[in-house]
Backbone:
């Protein structure tokens, strides 16, 4: 059985122009089943004909039903009815629907509960939540953090990678990313934004965040004979290096600031998996979701994520040599 090209074109064209989804919408229902397997089978038969649909679970008079809905959302029933009226008879003829098509309210296909769509924003130097931080998702969708530093992302985000811009007064505007699956945030949802470094002279700001495991990751910087980390949090000189915050109970942030940076100096930045310091073949660091944000002279340079599927307890992120960033992004059992 085949569906007319005009119908398929209408559906695909509408999907291409669809706006971001934020809440329940109206959808055209092509069929309702008591068994999810039957609904999925029907969905696959339509996919083979280039008709995009998804399965939505619904409760009706105490009975669970699985509805196969066209993927195009509408904010009101009137527009959904127009599409239904335009495709009903041809679709009924080709896919042998015996009853009349109808429209219904449903969650978008990538619906997730609000608590799974949260981004948490904190200050890099204190770890405290930032209220009224401005978040821009995929350059178009905007939201703001509440007093707890939480911002709820739009419902129905497509699965995959999304860009994220975080802006807050007194902090460096930070570009990063996150991923979603089924509408839920999959990457560690906590982001720390670096404070603007005050004073004259150039600066370096490095911020570490990670997930729930391992419990303790440590940020290190080596510069000549100097080594700044949790056991030596300050190093003076013409350029001052400070570990602003040491975090020992997962997620971070952990932050290092270089004040009055030297253009001639070499700064080497590492992450050490302190939790597994006696197990150099551990893969926990690689699975931690650790990411490091770099800002130079109060300008966001980028975010670096730990390589996955590696073993080792040392992550050599990058060096800053003669003012240039040299990326290494390697995980090993010992510090190189």
Residues:
């Amino acid at each position: 059985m085949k569906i007319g090209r005009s119908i398929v074109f209408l559906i695909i064209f509408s999907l291409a122009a669809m706006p971001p989804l934020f809440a329940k919408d109206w959808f055209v229902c092509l069929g309702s089943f008591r068994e999810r397997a039957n609904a999925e089978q029907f969905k696959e038969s339509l996919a083979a004909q280039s008709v995009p649909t998804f399965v939505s679970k619904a409760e009706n008079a105490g009975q669970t039903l699985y509805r196969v809905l066209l993927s195009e959302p509408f904010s009101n029933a009137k527009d959904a009815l127009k599409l239904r009226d335009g495709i009903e008879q041809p679709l009924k003829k080709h896919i042998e629907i015996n009853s009349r098509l109808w429209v219904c309210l449903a969650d978008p296909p990538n619906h997730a509960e609000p608590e799974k769509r949260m981004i948490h924003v904190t200050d890099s130097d204190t770890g405290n939540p930032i209220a009224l931080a401005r978040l821009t998702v995929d350059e178009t969708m905007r939201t703001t953090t509440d007093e707890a530093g939480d911002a709820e992302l739009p419902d129905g985000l497509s699965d995959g990678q999304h860009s994220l811009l975080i802006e807050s007064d007194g902090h460096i505007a930070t570009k990063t990313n996150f991923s979603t699956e089924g509408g839920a945030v999959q990457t560690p949802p906590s982001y720390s934004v670096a404070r603007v470094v005050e004073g004259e002279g150039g600066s370096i700001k490095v911020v570490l965040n990670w997930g729930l495991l391992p419990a303790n990751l440590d940020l290190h910087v080596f510069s000549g004979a100097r080594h700044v980390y949790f056991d030596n949090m300050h190093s003076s000189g013409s350029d001052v290096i400070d570990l602003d915050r040491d975090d020992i109970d997962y997620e971070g942030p952990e932050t290092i600031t270089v004040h009055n940076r030297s253009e001639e100096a070499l700064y080497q930045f590492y992450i050490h998996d302190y939790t597994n310091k006696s197990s150099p073949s551990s893969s926990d660091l690689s699975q931690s979701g650790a990411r490091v944000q770099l800002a130079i002279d109060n300008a966001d340079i980028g975010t670096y994520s730990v390589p996955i599927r590696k073993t080792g307890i040392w992550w050599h992120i990058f060096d800053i040599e003669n003012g240039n960033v040299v990326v290494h992004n390697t995980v090993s059992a010992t510090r190189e």
Q: What stands out?
A: The mean pLDDT is 87. The longest strand covers residues 25-33. The helical segments are 5-16, 36-47, 77-95. The CA atoms of residues 270 and 316 lie 5 Å apart.
